[in-house]
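Box 3.1 A note on notation
Throughout this textbook, protein chains are presented in two layers. The first layer is the amino acid sequence; the second is a token string describing backbone geometry. Keep the layers aligned when reading.
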Amino acid sequence: MAKKGKITIDREMCKGCRLCIRSCPVKVLEEDKEMNSTGSYPAKAVMMEKCIACGNCYEVCPDVCIEVFEIEG
């Protein structure tokens, strides 16, 4: 059975580099349509139910603004 996951993204710390979006194998993330206070378009989780808690997004984030949690399921 595949792992289930949940991620949180600190919108204000995210500079919108999109490395996490490109690294996600199941396409959970996309660029938000709304800017944060720094004028960046941060990453946003849009398909959380597909998250497999692989941690790729966490590993590539240069600003450490993503947390990944494995959940029971």
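The longest strand covers residues 4-9. Helices lie at 19-23, 56-60.
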